[in-house]
Amino acid sequence: MAKGNHQGRVLRDHKKIGQKLIPPFMQLPNLKETSFRDNTLPCLIWVSALFLRATDREAVHNIIEFLIKCREILDDDKSPPLVFLNNFDKLNDKQKLKILNNLNDDTRLNFLRENLVHQYHLFDKYPLSFIFQDYTYGVDKEEAIDLLKEDVSALLDRYTLHSTKVQTTAFISMTATGKLFLSSKIDLPDFNSIFTAPDSDESKRVASFVRANINAGAGFQDTEGGENEWSKSFWSQSFGLEACS
User: Residue 148: is it exposed, middle or buried by C-beta count within 10 angstroms (0-12/13-18/19+)?
Assistant: First the structure.
């Protein structure tokens, strides 16, 4: 009985078209399915790295606070959801410099630099390269490649606990930064349960909800986390790194 009730709660807001159930946000206009691995994974690869090398609490806190601070600094309602790495490419140099200057010596900025420097070292035109301006570091290329492999491998299967934490954090960050507004009519799960009770039914409900909704272009618009130049460049450069390793 409990299992049946759980499924009913998960599917309550879905719309049935023929034999297919459409999740709530896929019912919005101008949305299309995208390949998680091809398009969304490269946009969330930085979040994957942070969860791998910090506690859940540290990762969530620094990611959310960094994105909130970026929103406050930019003070532009039209700025895209920056949890998706490709969206930093949509900022102009003045906006990037404004973020950097306002976050200079901030603990959140140092946290990002320390845990993402291997990605910056490996990729040409890395979307977060501006935060490494005047940053002195030493990275062994082979070690950097090994770290990147961990970042990618952990996120390849979007159904794992790690991937669910990454996707849940991305989803929550959009609500925290005013890039996503949720209807009071939607029966929302307890997102904290993915961290506090990962084996619970409520955690499974969170996982199902987030996967269904973040899959819609990873940002709910075709241009946000869907097919984009950064994702194409990421895979092209990654294959080149693999060939050289």
Answer: buried
Which residues are CB-neighbours of 16 under 8 A, at least 6 positions away? 22
Question: Which sequence spans correspond to the domains of the chain?
Answer: 33-244
Question: How does pLDDT run across 82-121, given as a tens digit for each residue?
Answer: 999 999 999 999 999 999 999 987 889 999 999 999 999 9
Give dist(CA 241, CA 235) in Å, integer. 10
Q: Which whole-number Å values give the CA distances from 232 to 38, 95, 238, in the listed order?
A: 8, 24, 10
What is the value of pTM for the model shown?
0.81
Q: Which residues of 151-162 are buried (b: 16+ CB within 10 A; e: fewer)?
A: bbebbeebeeee
Closest listed residue to residue 90, CA positions, set 225, 184, 204, 186: 225
Q: 54 forms bridges with which residues in the sheet? A: none
For residue 190, count other CB atoms closer than 10 A to its CB. 13
- Kindly tell me the burial class for residue 131, based on how many C-beta atoms sit within 10 Å of its own C-beta (0-12, 13-18, 19 or more): buried
DSSP of 160-182: SHHHHHHHHHHHHHHHHTTS---
Which element (helix H / strand E) includes 244? Answer: helix 229-244
Q: Is the dihedral of CA 164, 28, 179, 187 positive or negative?
A: negative
